[in-house]
Amino acid sequence: MAVISLPDWAVPSGAEPFLRDFGTVLTPFLGGPEQRINRLGTRFGLRVTLPPMSTRDKALIVQSRLLRAREDRLLMEWPQPDFDTGNPGAPLVSAVVASGTTLPLKGMTPGYVIKEGQMVSIIHGGRRYMEMASADATVGAGGTVSATIWPLLRSSLSVNDVVEIAAPKIEGLVSPGDELSWQISVDRLASFSFTISEGA
Fold it and tell me: Which domains does the chain have, with CATH numbers?
């Protein structure tokens, strides 16, 4: 499958992050205590709105890429407005990780602080996985740090897998399971709204 990106000028005018939670809560029908069951696979998505654009040029390009991303995957930067990610260096996974919520990193700028709630994307096996830092973590003098992330890793990681912190990106299908439509107004402007959801 190919990975498709929107043009640089197709900047969203609005984005609504959401969480796909595959866990569940068991509620006893006789009134006993509820029990949370966590399951592997919790992942992120975005509901995106693009500003109106001319149907004669830019809209045709956006239309083409969104329709093709229904079968392939769309790649776009995760919005973190007014948050300065700073200069994290060139983060790489520093050890093999089979599962869990700890992300060992190397190649980072000493003294850099990964902030709680900050998003990161990990590239493994040609696919990106979105994760969120669940606690502050300060990079040591050697450029290494063990960051705590959430949710549970959905794939094992290899040494030297790239981790995107300065500009994390989400990769997934466009509007999976739903129809994709757009509006064309009488003033010949097209408006696009779509959902991108991680598929793995």
Answer: 3-79+171-197 (3.30.200), 89-167 (2.40.30)
